[in-house]
Amino acid sequence: xxxxxxxxxxxxxxxxxxxxxxxxxxxxxxxxxxxxxxxxxxxxxxxxxxxxxxxxxxxxxxxxxxxxxxxxxxxxxxxxxxxxxxxxxxxxxxxxxxxxxxxxxxxxxxxxxxxxxxxxxxxxxxxxxxxxxxxxxxxxxxxxxxxxxxxxxxxxxxxxxxxxxxxxxxxxxxxxxxxxxxxxxxxxxxxxxxxxxxxxxxxxxxxxxxxxxxxxxxxxxxxxxxxxxxxxxxxxxxxxxxxxxxxxxxxxxxxxxxxxxxxxxxxxxxxxxxxxxxxxxxxxxxxxxxxxxxxxxxxxxxxxxxxxxxxxxxxxxxxxxxxxxxxxxxxxxxxxxxxxxxxxxxxxxxxxxxxxxxxxxxxxxxx
Length: 367
What we know:
Elements: E1 4-7, E2 10-14, E3 19-22, H1 47-59, E4 64-69, H2 78-94, E5 98-105, H3 112-119, E6 123-127, H4 132-136, H5 150-157, E7 165-171, H6 179-189, E8 193-198, H7 206-230, E9 235-237, H8 246-249, E10 250-253, E11 258-260, E12 277-280, E13 284-285, H9 287-304, H10 322-330, H11 335-353, E14 359-360
Parallel strand pairs: 3-4, 3-10, 4-5, 5-6, 6-7, 7-8, 8-9, 9-14
Antiparallel strand pairs: 1-2, 10-11, 11-12, 12-13
Helix pairs in contact: 1-2, 7-11
């Protein structure tokens, strides 16, 4: 069984990650103004690299694993994506491994044929921020004219069954007043699985945080009432993906064929990523190196905030925001200020997650 290293009760890293992010390409056909990923690597993962990476990932660790496709827009390489998924599932079956596949797409290239293929093999996440006004304020096409994307995505998804779609929405300050209205819009479209998370590389004032709490509380109450009537058919991830467990138990297979510490390394410029390489598809995954590197970063980050987490009443539920620390370090931002902001958002989400019967919590189980 995988084990964790802990520093003052703060979890660090699994010995053998149970998740792997595969970045086929860093290219994207949207130019979202809040995107934190440095889409600068021109390389594209070859099929041979993907096969070797999958074999290495499946050879060690637990018998329940997850492979995700998120970084860049995976449907830009739809044929390669489908070949990789088929290969991964076949190899997992040979090894008697339960493998979950998750594909996150912006929906611009989603059609019935691709949906039918993916829905039989993967969980499909689709990124939309709300009604047209909320969505198009931030998610524009990557083109000289910066055209809006809502209507194209809505056309692609309008008649797709929503049972195997999870709606991913980024909550921005300007859209905070409309969080509940946007949620109701998506409910009307037939969605029943949601992940609403606020931007974390920004700072919020008290009014904005109160608004976030109020709007998300209304969503919570709606889901509870809905599930009481409909036998728990709707759920929400009450977490933020950037400070969920993925950094702790997910390794990244980059488009250059290297394995990286975790998926959020893509927030860094290409020239800064090399120090976080923990192997490649030729030499394998350096699991011990990954643990040592993670422990070193964690120690530096935790010390920088004077180890205040160990005295927090949410210590056992919350996860330390390592990506936020790396982002602040790279951009010469005051980590303590952003960390304080993170704490306030985390307390809102964790407070909501403790009540009711509609939760799906991504926080790391304590072993």
